[in-house]
Write a structure and sequence with these properties.
With 155 residues, the chain is mainly alpha-helical. The protein folds into 3 domains: 51 residues, no CATH class; 39 residues; 38 residues. The protein starts with 9 loop residues before the first helix and ends in a 10-residue tail after the last helix.
């Protein structure tokens, strides 16, 4: 009996294409990073391959205190976030706390908004020169000090 292969389903082809795109977008920069870390010359120039860059980086005595500080910070942040999330989840699910529906929305919005957009938003609000909150405070405090003038926004 002869076996006939069926054509792949369109969902399967789409999944394969998306996977190939993601692998390409991740592995290309990672490969270039590894390749250039093994060279003695700047990126794009020919040079010999060596592990000297890794030896220099990992033999630096300032690396290990920084690594310990980073691990302590990450551990403390994780514990704090876990305790806060546990408390919020318990309040929302096990009690009839007011505004519990708002907690669901806040949790979803925090997941949806990428970190880069959130960073840009905070910059737009709190930047010393162009931040909306800072400009409002400057104008409010300046008008309280001198009623007839305000500090202009300069770019």
């Amino acid at each position: 009996m002869r076996r006939v292969l069926a054509a792949p389903h369109s969902d399967t082809l789409f999944l394969i294409c998306v996977t190939a795109l993601v692998v390409y977008l991740v592995l290309t920069p990672l490969g270039m990073l590894i390749w250039n870390s093994l060279k003695t010359t700047p990126p794009g120039l020919p040079g010999e391959l060596t592990f000297a860059n890794f030896t220099k980086a990992y033999s630096d005595p300032t690396l290990y205190p920084l690594l310990v500080n980073s691990l302590l910070f990450a551990t403390g942040s994780t514990i704090f976030a876990f305790l806060l999330a546990f408390m919020m989840a318990w309040l929302v699910e096990r009690t009839n706390a007011p505004l519990r529906d708002l907690a669901y929305v806040i949790a979803i919005v925090a997941t949806i908004i990428p970190g880069m957009i959130a960073s840009i938003a905070w910059i737009m609000l709190l930047h010393p020169r162009i931040g909306l909150i800072n400009l409002a405070l400057i104008n409010t405090l300046a008008s309280a000090k001198r009623p007839s003038t305000s500090i202009p926004c300069t770019g």
